[in-house]
Write a structure and sequence with these properties.
By secondary structure, this protein is of the alpha+beta class. The protein has helices at 7-15, 39-44, 284-291, 294-305, 338-346, 363-380, 385-393, 396-403, 418-434, 436-449, 457-468, 473-481; strands spanning 74-86, 91-102, 106-112, 117-124, 127-129, 132-134, 137-146, 151-160, 165-166, 176-181, 187-190, 210-219, 223-226, 229-236, 239-250, 257-260, 263-268, 274-279, 313-317, 322-323, 329-331, 354-356, 453-455. The strands form five sheets. It has an eight-stranded mixed sheet with strand order 5-4-8-2-1-12-15-14, with no helix packed on it. It has a five-stranded antiparallel sheet with strand order 9-10-11-16-13, with no helix packed on it. The longest helix has 18 residues, at 363-380. It is globular, with a radius of gyration of 22 Å.
Length: 487
């Protein structure tokens, strides 16, 4: 995720006698499954074939920190989004087609969907229904109940002027989440831990990952950028449509929308992986050289983490922060530097392909990404990883007092620096016990063996013991749960 800029870290390291620079601041379901409806019901409603989207299957769970978002009763396998942005009118028009598996028996489908957008029509398996709305929930009735593992296709047509949501967080760059409109009608949407619902109907929780097809129509001369692999542009009349596809499952917080007069540049990464950069014309001279560091940074990460987990990569220069949006990192101007690119790309192993099951385990994302950003900085700039860790240790106690321990942070302290730095030090402690060879074998194996899954502390601790033969449970719990810095 985007990294917080810690003034206390800057001041302390500037005053330190240590020669190290400032640590970069953080920023196969069957068509007739077991438990299906009775034969009489099955005859009335043809079964929906879910097999085409099997890769989008998840095990949704409720969130302990933000239970108002997400619905563990449904598993969205695929989103087909057709979006049109009109910058002059500042309006978004959308058709969202969701292929849904019932995670448990259902009589209705509840989705997260922003109240600022007007619903024009809702259909279930092609038949019109009357949906109801309450706050940011859209509830859609089913003509026939669904048994667990049965599927349905819900389509929502809508329009309006999206608005971001107040996340009630202390961190300023995530105080308002979701869809933002800038001067001249440019627009972008980033959202962690939630906020996708401000621009499309969604099961807005990391435990429900899905496949995506996205088409964004904008005026000619504009570009529409999303997550996934860029599939090309078509033009008709005064508009152009940009299409994107995600064949690996995506958590809703890793989606992105950007509409602007971008220039697009093509590049190639290791093994010819296609890379695209999307940059405003006025910013090309300053930002393109940073973006073009991506191939070398990916190669550096691959040596430690194994092959890049996706079929394409990219960077869109938008927003006021930095985010590891899947296959298309998003960076605002202040974050356009190689160390941040390394941080966000590290997330593609830690967060994107292996995703935290709930927001209680945000440290699984940020601790790893912060540690590899620090290592990248040590390898390419100045200082050593040990010097970084020594400096960070000085401020970990204050971060814990202010925000809570990394594994039990306060609800209004999402993505504060405690979940970046403390877990990074924890990983360094594990590295010292294992040695470099076993440690980097571990980080490589964790990402490669758990591709396209959601995980939590228990599964990581258990797997670490199985993989290394060492029991790190006590160390991990101390670093994640202690009110004070472990020694």
């Amino acid at each position: 995720m985007r990294r917080p800029l810690l003034s206390l870290m800057t001041v302390a390291l500037a005053a330190s006698a240590c020669s190290a620079p400032q640590p970069p601041a953080p920023a196969s379901p069957a068509t007739t499954p077991a438990g299906a409806a009775s034969p009489a019901v099955a005859e009335q409603r043809p079964a929906v074939d879910l097999s085409a989207f099997e890769a989008g299957r998840s095990r949704p769970v409720p969130d302990p920190l933000y239970p108002a978002y997400g619905n563990p009763s449904i598993d969205v396998l695929h989103y087909d989004l057709e979006l049109a942005w009109k910058p002059g009118a500042r309006t978004l028009t959308g058709t969202a087609k969701l292929t849904i598996r019932a995670a448990r028996p259902l009589t209705r489908v509840r989705l997260d969907f922003g109240r600022a957008l007007k619903v024009d029509e809702v259909t279930v398996d092609g038949a019109k229904v009357r949906a109801t709305r309450k706050y940011d929930d859209l509830t859609i009735p089913l003509a026939e109940p669904l048994a667990a593992d049965e599927g349905t296709v819900v389509t929502v047509r809508y329009h309006g002027r999206p608005k971001p949501v107040d996340a009630k967080q202390r961190r300023k760059d995530i105080a308002m989440l979701g869809f933002h409109i800038e001067g001249g009608g440019a627009a972008w949407a980033l959202q962690e831990p939630f906020g996708s619902f401000t621009w499309f109907p969604v099961n807005d929780h990391p435990s429900d990952e899905a496949l995506y097809d996205v088409a964004i129509t904008v005026p000619k001369g504009w570009s529409g950028v999303a997550h996934g692999t860029y599939k090309g542009k078509t033009s008709a009349g005064r508009t152009s449509t940009f299409t994107w596809q995600s064949t690996d499952p995506v958590a809703s917080y890793l989606t992105v929308f950007a509409a602007e007069r971008f220039r697009m540049f093509r590049d190639k990464g290791p093994r010819g992986i296609p890379i695209t950069y999307w940059i405003r014309p006025r910013d090309v001279a300053k930002q393109l050289p940073v973006a073009k560091r991506m191939p070398s940074i990916i190669r550096w990460l691959e040596k430690k983490l194994g092959p890049y987990p996706f079929p394409s990569a990219g960077l869109v220069a938008t927003s006021d922060s930095g985010m590891e949006t899947q296959q298309m990192i998003a960076l605002g101007p202040r974050y356009m530097e190689p160390s941040v690119v390394a941080h966000e790309l590290a997330h593609h192993w830690f967060g994107d392909t292996v995703t935290p099951r709930t927001w209680r385990d945000l440290w699984l994302n940020e601790g790893f990404a912060m540690y590899f950003e620090m290592q990248w900085y040590a390898d390419h700039e100045d200082g050593t990883i040990d010097e970084f860790v020594a400096n960070i240790r000085r401020f970990d106690p204050e971060l814990r007092r202010e925000n809570g321990p990394p594994g039990r942070y306060r609800r209004d302290s999402f993505a504060q620096s405690n979940v970046y730095y403390g877990p990074a030090i924890m990983l360094h402690e594990i590295r010292k016990r294992l040695g470099d060879r076993k440690f980097f074998a571990m980080t490589r194996a964790w990402a490669q063996e758990h591709r396209n899954t959601t995980q939590d502390r228990a599964s990581f601790t258990r797997w670490l013991k199985e993989h290394t033969g060492r029991n790190f449970t006590k160390l991990i719990n101390a670093w994640l749960d202690s009110e004070t810095t472990p020694r």
